[in-house]
Amino acid sequence: MPKRLFDLIAAALGLALLWPLLLLAALWVKLDSPGPVLFRQVRVGRYGVPFTIHKFRTMRTEPGAAITVGADPRITRSGQVLRQTKLDELPQLWDVLRGAMSLVGPRPELPRYVALYPADLRERVLAVRPGITDPASLAFSHEAELLAVADDPEREYREVILPAKLRLSADYAARASLATDLRLIFSTLARVVRG
User: Fold this and answer.
1) What letter would DSSP give residue 37?
2) Are 131 and 164 in contact (CB under 8 A)?
3) Fewest beta carbons within 10 Å, which of 22, 51, 113, 189?
């Protein structure tokens, strides 16, 4: 089965089955703190084309750093639960359905971080649709904690974490298959269930 067809079927099925959960999450976000239900941000997609990613908003609407460090005080009560359970990512099923993303693929980055990609890795990583999960997401599921103990979180992300994630993403892009995607989806679901 072609990857895009699998994405369409799985995303449509996910939205059809999970709409009550999506509705409850949206109501909780709205009642928990002022601001929009959805967080929208421009990320870099396939072939370097920018797109708007959608997530449930997990932080208060106030200015701050682009990266989340440890127990960021901007995170709301609902946001803590949504982040821990990864339910904040569910609106991205719509991004998959509309073709901007895939279920599995390199996580889409902010343009300012993509500008740091070495040319050879940039071409490989951006040759596939970005995804909701990928090997780098699993390997760095504790990223906020790593950044919390760094002297300079932004520098730590740029110089240590980003290059490591980029290598994993490039390796995935070179070997992507439906079997690999299914394995990563089940690994992600197992990680979510284990908390």
Assistant:
1) S
2) no
3) 189
Q: What is the dihedral of CA 81, 84, 88, 93, to 10 degrees?
A: -140
40: β partners: 54
The conformation of residue 160, written as its DSSP 8-state character, comes to: I
pLDDT digits (tens, 9 = 90+) for 2-15: 999 999 999 999 99
What is the DSSP code (8-state) at residue 54? E
User: Would you state the pLDDT for residue 191?
Assistant: 86
Among candidate residues 140, 127, 142, 119, the one with its CA nearest the CA of residue 172: 127
Nearest to 157 by CA among 55, 67, 62: 67
The yes-or-no verdict on residue 182 having pLDDT over 80 is: yes
Full DSSP string of 86-152? TGGGTTHHHHHHTTS-EEESPPPPPHHHHTTS-HHHHHHHTTS--EEE-HHHHHTTTHHHHHHTSSS
- Given a contact cutoff of 8 angstroms between Cβ atoms, the answer to whether 34 and 113 are in contact is no
Q: What is the pLDDT of residues 94-132, one digit of tens each?
A: 999 999 999 999 999 999 999 999 998 999 999 999 999
Tallying the residues shown for the chain, one arrives at: 195
Strand partners, 131: 102
Task: Give me the chain's average pLDDT, please.
Answer: 92
The encoded tokens of residue 95 equal 């991004």
